[in-house]
What we know:
The structure holds two protein chains of two kinds.
Chain A: H1 2-31, E1 39-43, H2 69-73, E2 78-80, E3 90-92, E4 100-101, E5 107-111, H3 126-138, H4 145-151, E6 152-159, E7 162-167, E8 179-180, H5 190-193, E9 213-218, E10 224-229, E11 248-252, H6 257-265, E12 271-272, H7 277-286, E13 290-291, E14 301-302, E15 308-311, H8 321-328, H9 333-341, H10 358-363, H11 367-372, E16 375-376, E17 381-382, E18 385-386, H12 389-401, H13 409-416, E19 420-421, H14 425-434, E20 438-440, E21 443-445, E22 453-458, H15 464-480, E23 483-488, H16 493-499, E24 504-507, H17 520-523, H18 549-559, H19 567-582, E25 585-587, E26 592-593, E27 596-598, E28 602-603, E29 630-631
Helix pairs in contact in A: 3-4, 6-7, 8-14, 9-15, 12-13, 18-19
Chain B: H1 2-31, H2 37-46, H3 53-66, H4 73-84, H5 100-135, H6 140-152, H7 157-171, H8 191-227, H9 231-238, H10 243-269, H11 275-280, H12 286-296, H13 299-327
Helix pairs in contact in B: 1-13, 2-3, 5-6, 5-8, 5-10, 5-13, 6-8, 7-8, 8-10, 9-10, 10-13, 12-13
Amino acid sequence: MPILRTIACAAVALLIGTTAYAPSAQSQDVVSSLPRKETLILENPEGTIKNPGWFNIWAINAGGQYTGLQQLAMDTLWYIDPEKGLDGPIDNSLASEPPKYNADFTEMTVKLRPGIFWSDGVEFTADDVVYTVETQMKNTGMRWGPLLSLNVESVQAPDPQTVVFKLKRPNSRFHALFTVRFNAIWIMPKHVFEQAPDPMRFDFNKPVSLGAYALHSFDPQGKWFIWQRRDDWQRTTLGRFGEPGPKYAVYMDAGPPDKRVIAQMNHNLDVVHDVAPEGMFTLAKQSKSSRGWFKDFPYAHPDPTLPALLFNHQRPEFQDRDVRWALALLIDIKAVSMASYRGAATISAIGIPPTGTHPDDYHIPMQDWLKSFELDTGKRKIKPYDPTIGKQIADMLRPSMKEQIPTDQASIDRSFGMGWWKPNPQAAQELLQKAGYTKRGSSWYTPDGKPFSIRVMVEGESRPVITRAGTMIAQQWRQFGIDAKTDLAQGTMLDRRNAGDFDTLISWSVESYGGHPDLAYFLDSWHSDYVAAPGKMQAPRNYMRWASPELDGIIEKIRGVSFDDPRSIELGREYVKLAVREMPIIPLMAYNVFVAMDDTYWTGYPTAEDPYANPVPNWGNSRYMMVRLKPSE
Amino acid sequence: MRTYAAYLAKRLMQFALVVFIGINLTYLISHSTPIDPVEQTISALTSFGNTSPEAIETMRQSLRELYGMSGTPLEQYLSFWSRIAVGDFGPSLSAFPTPVSELILRALPWTIGLLVVATLIAWLLGNLLGGLAGYYRRNRVLKALGLVAMGLHPMPYYVVAFVLLVLFGFLWPVLPISGGSGMAVQQGFSFAFAYSVFIHSLLPALSLVLVGMGGWFLGMRALVSNIVTEDYVVYAELGGVDRHRILTSYVMRNALVPQVTGLAMSLGAIFTGAIITEEVFGYPGIGSLLVDAVHAGDYSLVLGVTSVSIVAVSTAVLVIDLLYPLLDPRVQVE
């Protein structure tokens, strides 16, 4: 049969052709025309950018943010690192010193650093800052427009290195708007934007950079963005820390978790933003050049956020703290840790993430208070805190993970967390009975005779680790006789969370600076003034809609002291005690991000042993790793 | 001919009605989703900062105006049809202010390029080999191919894709596992770019061909197996007609009619994109665009993609219906 023979010959020829191509394919795959030894490749967790030709970071949805744009090209007045920082967690970036407020916090003066230039050679001055503020105030459709117009009365530049903000009302944390934790109000190049007829519809392509890198090229399909080190990197704020190592930095959509693992194993992805725990375990086991934040288990970087079980305080069932405490005492955090992170979790009993310097500021100093904390069940007083839970998790994992589990207490505390609430079904029963709940047969009923039913809303496949935590908690409550079920939100999570359309929710309402003890970043938004009426949309972050006069008092005192005032730590600890007593949310653990770093081409990544920067590559302050990275050879 | 003209008019009216109903249904479904693009955007904008309720409200009002969502539902619906009538789907909400049509036009060539080639290869190989297998039923190689096709055809597509990914992306890493072209290869008319596109399309195309070919193979083999027992084929064989001629002119030609219909339908459906393929291989086509749009609640983009798809599939069906009476004398317009 000649036809069949022809087809067979063609197939063989194709196979030979593919095989002949094979040796060069891998190296050509990713950075074909870039010298690999001079190129750092990082994951952009935004995925593929639909409108990649837009670099106007001040306009809404106009292009990607984490394409290297906010990390390498943008700059603003201050940076604050969730870790220890290169020179302390706070870096005066475009500002040459910390902000100066007047006595009643209605005026903020900023001194700017001289000798900083945009990538097109124009000098950065106070006019750029004034332009940034005024342009966004005029255009409330821009990202920070509403915030600025609500806060700023006027902004002036008395000289090229000074900016004076006059505020509409006292605000001791106004500078936080210009302080990068994740991002902040980036400074606009006045000389570029003032040429554009409409700043909201200006693509800013090619972007003019204030950072040490400038745009080299990008994929018109939005898959990758390449940045090149500026020849005049000394004239940027990062230049004070030395020359950035990589000549090129590529931010790319690395695909779903399994492909990120494959890409790093093939040494085509130096920094993975996040993989599932299982992916990290695979990399740690199979790739000798890969490592996580912790050298050993649990590997992950604890984000300064705190996944927790949030009660909807506007539902009658959760308005009694005895009920909230009962539900907390029904949770076995060890099982939750195993179900969610396969044990690679850093637990926290208090409403502060166990991140950066927080263990030193809050967790360790409060251990004695936690150990002596008493709970009145109505029948007796119990001490619910078990300081050994972190160690128990480590011991539980040791037989299977062996030498990967640290043995010294300090490392265990830092990696797995310290204590948590010991499961106590008997005390939970007493608390529920104290609150008027009854048990009939094997089921619990509310004071008005209805079955005690709880839906635990979870995000679903887009956040599998946290979803598994919620599923485990619902299961534990169900075993106790409560009609608890998981409520899969999938893509509707944000809408339902903001609308208060949930009983309980696995999410986070606590986000802190991590490297600095001030809690105003999230705590200010927990003031009862911010709580929306039922049915109305809730502003971030008090998604649980908890209103407490006692908490309002603490928040108002924090507003009255400056950012670096030691009294703010004392007030922060007051918040912790109140939150333990009231249990408005059940804190679970840090949001652990499995950042995997490959040292085949680069060394000097930030790690738990050398925590000079947040390693998570989409954070604005991850730029600091550039000056510490060195070629491996 | 008058009969055919009447049939044509009737068919065109049906076409218009199907497109109108289809787009309306998509409009209703996408607008009744619980995902609000404004709230999605606000959540994204405020997720890394502290924002007061007043600022959120200002932001919400600005976004509603920007997104064209400030009128009543009826006003929004009428505005939608006035725009879509001239081919304007408005700006994408998740990639504001880029026009939806621009996003679709940017993604379509990738999808069309990949799917047209893969569909045609799968169709040609599947039908050719299936036809041979149906005619030369005792051939061992073709029997073996039949077994492979039977094994591949019912296999879920994503399993095949993942196996290929592991085989050629990890165990024997010779092919790119993601994207439409390589980094730092400038898009344009150059050999480097064409080569990069070709190499990047190999794995997704191979996965589509492997799975698609099985279906065509089995279908064609079954058709040919039936036709070879028809009287006219038996008569031709008894009459000593050359077997090659019987295969090509008598058997394959007749068996191809339903397969051509299937091909036209497949080509029409290309405008929906190969969603799983594009997601698995990170291919920058219309399928990925649609998935992203659904996740982001970007109903302008969802409407744009689905409208194009509705028109494409309806047009494919219309063309087949119009051509059949002209090509196949057995099909009557009445």
